Amino acid sequence: MEYTNGVSSPEIFRRWAAIVTVGASLERRCWAVTARGYTFPNLFAILAGRPGIGKSEAINRARSLVAATAQEGVYQQCCNLAPVDVTKSALYDYLSSSKVKRMGPAPEELALGIEGDHHYHSAYLAISELQDLVRDHDTALLGALHSLYDCLPMITEERRYRTDNPIKIPRGQISLLGGTTPAYIGRTFPAAAWDEGFMARTIIIYSNDLIQPDLFGGEDGEDGLDSNLADQLISDLRLIGRLSGRFEFSEDAKASIVQWQKSGQLPKPTHPKLEHYNTRRLRHAIKLSMIASANRSDEMKIEVEDFQDALAWMIEAEEAMPKIFLEIVGKSDAQVLNELYHFVNGLWNFPTSKGQSIRRGQIVNFLRNKVPAMQIDKIIDTAVEAELILKMASLDGTPRYRPNEKAGLFNAKKMGPG
């Protein structure tokens, strides 16, 4: 974070670029064990925001550091950087190639009492434009990514013209860091996709914070980056790239994780489209705890502080996630307020119900497909405070509303976007 402090990218984008890069550098050599089986530290994260917000800046800095870890004859790259523009077949071809093959311990073999290192095939997809990878909800490629995220012991793919010689990828794994806009997510992933594997496995990192650092950089160079810090980070990534084996949990960390799990994993996202994402939050927390531990030291032990860091990272991202659904619909608060006024005014003046106040439930039903669920009460309260609609007393005590004809659309336009 200190190294990229002068980069024109939101803080949360830079943080998650670092998080995913550390997880990618641990590859499939490292894992944790719980009652749910093996968990590996690879992540799928998408940096989402409007064009020019700094997604590529964060991702490209991470790529540059990874690429710089290679030193011919001395160090191999801390993790394999996969090509950006690939189909399902091209991705499998790349992963099965000898240049991707590495050696490391395999938990599946160790469980059977088989010692020693084994081949695994791991890669890091760090792409500034997600649309270069996934086009038009490419279900074949997404299905391949699901398997590689899950780190299956063996992935087999039949070749189109050589069914007698299928591609075999032992211990395949992918980490993904992509950048895109809410509009692309809305176009490419239909509503049903949020219930499927890819989006349920993905952590969306949303921000629209416009960062404007010193145009001509700091004292360390025109790009504002400290070369000494870069050297330290490259050295650290090399060390992380050599860690291998099982992460152990301290007793205090175990107790904290179990307490969080039993308490309902609160705070938990409530947006309906994140329902299936919620089922994977515990696994995300374990992955992030390993990454926090590797970031802190090379002991490969998860302490309470690592779990707390993991939870803080995850909750920060989750608090912003619902905002992306509002952007996907493409509506600012001012637009929604205008539409709400039109809706209430229309019902108030409708011939068969002219002059009848509108129930709050009717307004909630109108808004539920336009804004995230947690925003509905806020929108209604804002409309009342802006005097677009007026709250009325009722005999049964339930809230009822009517339009404020004197306000019209003037107040809503005056408020401006957001």
Question: Can you lay out the helices and strands and say which pair or pack?
Answer:
Blueprint: H1 11-26, E1 30-34, E2 37-39, E3 44-48, H2 55-68, H3 88-96, E4 101-104, H4 107-111, E5 118-127, H5 139-149, E6 154-157, E7 167-170, E8 172-180, H6 182-188, H7 197-201, E9 202-206, H8 227-240, E10 245-249, H9 251-262, H10 275-278, H11 281-296, E11 301-302, H12 304-329, H13 333-349, E12 358-359, H14 360-367, H15 376-385, E13 389-392, E14 400-403, H16 410-415
Parallel strand pairs: 1-10, 3-8, 3-9, 5-8, 10-11
Antiparallel strand pairs: 1-2, 4-5, 6-7, 12-14, 13-14
In short:
With 418 residues, the protein is of the alpha/beta class. The protein is 43% helix and 16% strand.
Give the tags.
single chain; 418 residues; alpha/beta; 5-stranded mixed sheet; 4-stranded mixed sheet; 16% strand; elongated; disordered C terminus
**Share in β-strands:** 15-25%
Low confidence ranges: 409-418
Helix-strand string? HEEEHHEHEHEEEHHEHEHHHEHHEHHEEH
Distance between the termini: 29 Å
Average pLDDT:
88
Q: Going across the biggest sheet, name each strand in turn.
A: 4-5-8-3-9
What is the number of helical segments per DSSP (H or I, 4+ residues)?
16
Q: Give the total of beta strands.
A: 14
Structural class: alpha/beta
What is the helix content?
40-55%
Question: Major β-sheet, in short?
Answer: 5 strands, mixed
